[in-house]
């Protein structure tokens, strides 16, 4: 092969590598930062909402993930942890010095978001950019005609194993970047604002020290009791 052709071929090969290397596909370690907004009508009748944090983080590494919301200078923490090494899903809840968690094996249901009966999801060809990532649109509708439809967005370019194990969007296999959920009757609209690529310690997916293990039913009752005491 002539020297000029070798140079051209080498140049094209390097260019292809650079193009693929600059893509976001296959990101498997870092932090997704989300903004949380609340339903204003619910805010008028539920004083708990004014006390809730307005940001969420999802830490991820090699398939494992931890979604956490914390506030009041560390006095409040709720987290959902999916640990691929131990094959466990955990719900962690802290208020002041009261620290509890429940845990189940993969495939079993633990605490999480309120169910959405009669939900349907229709994938579309529409896309938009969210936090620098290509996000695919899904239209969400319900059997109950009184519930208005809305859109959610997800990406395939972040690697988290079974990212929606605890929420109503289990049939969406990608990582959600814009969506809404309910927890104890409180509607939250959640949208990614930044994805930070960084090294994450495996210990991020362990249960924090000082937390007491209880049954899912016990923890659920405790959360309801605390929320009712604030109203």
Description:
It is globular and about 45 Å long. The protein has 3 helices and 12 strands. Strands 7-8-9-10-11-1-2-3-4-5-6-12 form a 12-stranded mixed beta sheet. It has a single domain, classed as outer membrane lipoprotein receptor (LolB), chain A (Clam). The chain is of the alpha+beta class and 231 residues long.
Low-confidence stretches: 6-25
Give the biggest beta sheet. Answer: 12 strands, mixed
The separation of the N and C termini measures: 79 Å
Q: Which structural category do the helix and sheet elements fall into?
A: alpha+beta
Approximately how much helix is present in the residues?
10-25%
H/E series: HEHEEEEEEEEEEEH
CATH class designation? Mainly Beta
Total helical segments: 3
Offer a concise description of the structure.
The protein is α+β, with helices and mostly antiparallel strands and 231 residues long. The protein has helices at 3-21, 40-45, 216-230, and strands at 29-38, 55-61, 64-71, 76-83, 88-95, 98-105, 119-130, 133-142, 150-155, 175-183, 186-197, 212-213.
């Amino acid at each position: 092969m002539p020297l000029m052709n070798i140079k051209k071929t080498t140049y094209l090969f390097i260019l292809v590598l650079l193009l693929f290397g600059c893509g976001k596909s296959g990101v498997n370690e870092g932090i997704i930062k989300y903004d949380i907004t609340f339903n204003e009508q619910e805010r008028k009748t539920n004083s708990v909402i004014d006390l809730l944090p307005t940001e969420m983080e999802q830490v991820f590494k090699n398939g494992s993930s931890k979604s956490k919301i914390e506030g009041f200078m560390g006095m409040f923490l709720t987290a959902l942890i999916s640990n691929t090494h131990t094959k466990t899903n955990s719900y962690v809840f802290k208020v002041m010095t009261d620290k509890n968690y429940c845990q189940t094996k993969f495939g079993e249901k633990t605490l999480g978001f309120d169910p959405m009966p009669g939900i349907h999801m229709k994938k579309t060809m529409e896309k938009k950019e969210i936090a620098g990532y290509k996000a695919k649109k899904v239209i969400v509708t319900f059997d109950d005609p009184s519930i208005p439809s809305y859109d959610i967005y997800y990406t395939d370019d972040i690697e988290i194993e079974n990212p929606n194990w605890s929420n109503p969007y289990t049939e969406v296999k990608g990582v959600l970047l814009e969506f809404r959920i309910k927890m104890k009757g409180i509607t939250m609209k959640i949208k990614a604002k930044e994805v930070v690529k960084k090294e994450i310690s495996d210990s991020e997916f362990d249960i924090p020290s000082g937390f007491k293990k209880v049954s899912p039913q016990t923890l659920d009752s405790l959360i309801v009791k605390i929320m009712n005491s604030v109203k």
